[in-house]
Write a structure and sequence with these properties.
single chain; 271 residues; alpha/beta; Rossmann fold; eight-stranded mixed beta sheet; 24% strand; globular
Amino acid sequence: MLKNILKDFFLTNLQKEIKKSNSQIIILNDWIGLKILVDKYYEKDEIEVLKKHFNDNIKNNTFVDVGANIGNHSLYFQKYFRRIIAFEPQKKIFKILKLNTEDFKNIKVFNYGLDSKSYFTEFSIPYSNSGMASELKKDLDSYIEKVEFKVFDNLHKDVVSYIKIDVEGNEEKVIMSMRKAIIKNLPVISFELNLDQDLRKKIIETFNSMGYNKFFVSEKYFFPRNIRFIKRFFGKPKKLKPISVSEMLSSNKNYSLVHTYSEKSNFKLNV
């Protein structure tokens, strides 16, 4: 009890200090937190490029942030969207998400994940990268936490114009949870595409079946990793470029964000 009281007191006071510097509360031993410490936002270059391709119709509706973590994408986009709904099932991470977003009236946060049915399960969460949580056995570098999942379509009726999905291979579960909202609104969707070829094929086929046929990734200008100064200024994403289904299926790259939309939708990227 005393431990929790002291922890809450520390987080509250830390929040006040961080707000003075207009920064996010982070976990210092976490990869995402360290990136935010350096760049202010995780994947900052990627989301800045994406923002340039949003039109007013997208911004005037709802952004759904699935796998929100500590609120990086929600915080970046809070001044661009009318309403933001963020989902994060991890309890410890959710506390930070709530602290980071509580001053923004257009951001609503929920402490559960999304799936096609409601249930509780256990997550194995790495100490050094909370964004890599999964339903796996505990190892020496992770801890176990009980998390909850719910069905989006049963609880939310917003006009959804943009969805970001970062859920470590569980993208299809999220899509099924939001199936009615996606089919009705045909929002722009950003999702992670990892190296699992079978999973890639399944996700792309699911999107195709729902009318999504345009895919884009950030076009980057690559430089050798050891030339950090040059890479810092010239190795950043500059714009979005089309990527074919065959290229996504044959590539051995891990795409942190792929963006897709339907030609039939009112919500399209300006590309």
